[in-house]
Amino acid sequence: MINLKDLTYDDLKKLVEDMGESGFRAGQIFAWLHKGVTSIDEMTNLSLEFRKRLSSAAFVSCPKNLLKRTSKLDGTVKYLFGLADGNCIETVVMKYNHGLSVCISTQVGCRMGCGFCASTIGGKQRNLTPGEILDQVIFASADIGQRISNIVLMGIGEPFDNYDNVMIFLKNVTDPKGINIGWRHISLSTCGIVPKIKELADMHTQLNLCISLHAPNDEIRNKIMPVNHKYGVSELMGAAEYYIKQTNRRITFEYSLIKGINDKKEHAEELADLLSGMLCHVNLIPVNRVRERSFEKSSSVEKFKEVLERRGINATVRRELGSDISASCGQLRRQQTEKAR
Ligand code: SAH
After folding, report:
1. Interatomic CA distance for residues 317 and 305, integer angstroms
2. Which residue has a Cα nearest atom 18 of ligand 1?
3. Active-site residue (options: 21, 90, 158, 254)
4. What are the domain boundaries of the chain?
């Protein structure tokens, strides 16, 4: 059975035409899917006979909302969604003055093994399909009753470890025939899979690329991010430069400050040396405590920021949202899977 949300518009058109219908039907189906229908039966501008035939070959996925938490502090909403095979993922909606931003997952678990991250404990179960990634956006928008203005691929999983499905999702979510979210309103965060950064660069999109750097050198980065053994800091910087050259877009480097590990003045200076002259921005994140990990929040976030700014590197501190609802990704899913055991 085909999940219609896994198909691009062109694939959908082919499917419809192969079934002997006019290609024009594909546009109608695509629009229904993005409006949030949960079954083929709801596509009332298709004939009953075609809906029946389509239902024998395809279906419309719909996540089960297992849990919804709303922050009393800032209105951040967190969903725990159950997938058809019993796995679960998290999605977070943040409310900003400029609109709703949805933070979505791309995999069930993660195999990247970053030392400070909750999502990777227990490894990767599987990739999400393009439809399951899209479902998070559609569900959140329908549930809150407001259009989503920004998407961030910063939930559970490494998007570039599920590159093909993420690309189909991006193609669909930016398609003017559907939800139609502009590339400039989408941010994708990677731990630094170099070949995929280059592949994306060659697509010349306006996507905001975020790179989880978290260390100014190989010695520290090797300790906290195993991916660095494969793609080291200088190779990663080369890929970042290439991305900027191909797209003319500013890159965001994420840097989670961990007490005693990467938060000293000398680290800030070394980071400034590394990024000097690059079209980039640094997003400093006070590390979130994860129960299973021993890393502590840094107490020198502002000092770190000052060093970068003095050196002419643009830096901001990420505002912590939804701290009362375990909004940082991975934690709720962990609590749920532990309960199930
Ligand atoms: N796999 C992607 C996206 C997922 S996480 C990536 O690695 O970029 C989104 C961001 O949160 C990443 O920068 C990640 O390193 C960071 N992060 C994960 N766990 C964290 C924690 N406990 N505290 C602070 N930041 C964390």
Report:
1. 8
2. 117
3. 90
4. 2-59, 64-340
Q: Which residues line ligand 1 (CB under 6 A)?
A: 114, 116-117, 154, 158, 189-191, 212, 254, 256, 285, 287-288, 290
Give the closest residue to 248 by CA, choosing from 278, 274, 276, 272. Answer: 278
Q: Which atom of ligand 1 is nearest to the CA of 114?
A: 15
Which CATH class name applies to 64-340?
Answer: alpha beta
For residue 212, give the ligand 1 atom closest to its CA. Answer: 13
Q: What is the pLDDT of residue 133?
A: 98
DSSP 136-199: HHHHHHHHHTS-EEEEEE-SSS-GGGGHHHHHHHHHHHT-TTTT---GGGEEEEES--HHHHHH
Residue 15's pLDDT band, with cuts at 50, 70 and 90, is very high
Q: Which CATH architecture has domain 2-59?
A: Orthogonal Bundle (1.10)
Separation of CA 28 and ligand 1 centre (Å): 38
- Per-residue pLDDT, 333: 77
The pLDDT, as a whole number, for residue 242 is 98
219 carries an active-site annotation: no
Q: Model confidence over 272-297: pLDDT tens digits?
A: 999 999 999 999 999 988 888 888 99
The model's pTM: 0.96
Is 90 part of the annotated catalytic residue set? Answer: yes
Both tokens assigned to 296: 């502590």
Contact predicate 162/125, CB 8 Å:
no
Ligand 1, closest atom to CA 161? 1
pLDDT tens figures, 307-318 = 999 999 999 998
Ligand 1 atom 20: the closest Cα is on which residue? Answer: 117
C-alpha closest to that of 197 among 243, 246, 237, 229: 243
